[in-house]
Amino acid sequence: xxxxxxxxxxxxxxxxxxxxxxxxxxxxxxxxxxxxxxxxxxxxxxxxxxxxxxxxxxxxxxxxxxxxxxxxxxxxxxxxxxxxxxxxxxxxxxxxxxxxxxxxxxxxxxxxxxxxxxxxxxxxxxxxxxxxxxxxxxxxxxxxxxxxxxxxxxxxxxxxxxxxxxxxxxxxxxxxxxxxxxxxxxxxxxxxxxxxxxxxxxxxxxxxxxxxxxxxxxxxxxxxxxxxxxxxxxxxxxxxxxxxxxxxxxxxxxxxxxxxxxxxxxxxxxxxxxxxxxxxxxxxxxxxxxxxxxxxxxxxxxxxxxxxxxxxxxxxxxxxxxxxxxxxxxxxxxxxxxxxxxxxxxxxxxxxxxxxxxxxxxxxxxxxxxxxxxxxxxxxxxxxxxxxxxxxxxxxxxxxxxxxxxxxxxxxxxxxxxxxxxxxxxxxxxxxxxxxxxxxxxxxxxxxxxxx
Length: 452
Description:
Blueprint: H1 2-27, E1 37-47, E2 58-70, H2 74-104, H3 111-127, H4 132-190, H5 196-215, E3 218-222, E4 228-232, E5 239-241, E6 250-255, E7 261-266, E8 272-274, H6 280-314, E9 316-317, E10 328-329, E11 338-339, E12 350-351, H7 358-362, H8 372-412, H9 416-451
Antiparallel strand pairs: 1-2, 3-4, 4-5, 6-7, 7-8, 9-12, 10-11
């Protein structure tokens, strides 16, 4: 009779645990990073009396909880981390390439239009070199072009600074996630396998691994107890987290004078330069090099424009009868160039041969395939192609990421219909176990009643 009571009690306890797991699944159905739990039940055997009067044997002793198991697929999780890394790189690169495209501003008020305006104003001046309005328009167009060089240069610098700030924020999050992952490893070392506490720590581990993979591409090696060792992909085995150690690698950021970014790792190894191939940091480093190249190209265009205008003006005679002088100063960089004069008479419209509008009309000869306008058009077209290519790559990697995450969710996610069916099954089993206890109690009362 006591065995019957014990069997009923074991069923009640076991199925109560199973119902608790189902309830936890339902509660966390929309919780990001939660992995569905399954309670594994097994038969409980007990030994009969070892007295010499009876034959010792094992009989059914009810049910018991074997472990609380997370539904997990290592292969699909690894594929998802890889897809997240690829998408992270594309997303970061596309975002800042588009920001740079906005900075280049090839609109109706952009630099290309301002450069063309200088040549157009010179042609207008050639129709009436004695017109004060024509000379003012000429100097104004040069001033507008110089000012647009300033705006474009400042916008590109802001894009470079924004990229660096985004990289610093990402690195702070990455270093924090690596430290948290080391703490989770410590917790997993202490937690018993198959327990609810272990399952919760494993959920945290997977969330942190996903965060790290979004920043840099990683390879993960899992121990039997769930602890994770993390190495940087394509680095020859550079460890970021060692499952056997409580400390982690530290990622640092270096920025050169032109805004180019580079990364170093220290902590577990001596300071080492790293070049992640995927992840948002890889995208940010890549785009920082692109922005630095665009800034250099803009400075080259500024230098070409300065040389064109100054060479042209010095080839003529100004309104005072003097040889033309520089109209632009400090023209080696877009941010440094300035208009050299506001004196309308300094515009050298006349040629040295005595033709009053000869030099004004000659400015159009500087509109060549190696001039500032042509190089600006090439810069804009090159960057536009880079943006289009990056957007296409982003679309592909985003689709791949979404598909990989969906594949993981199909395995680890909570299906409320399935949980409802499981709840009904476990409720019936719980009720049956309780019925066993009730039958044992009633039988015992009947036996006692016969004795009385």
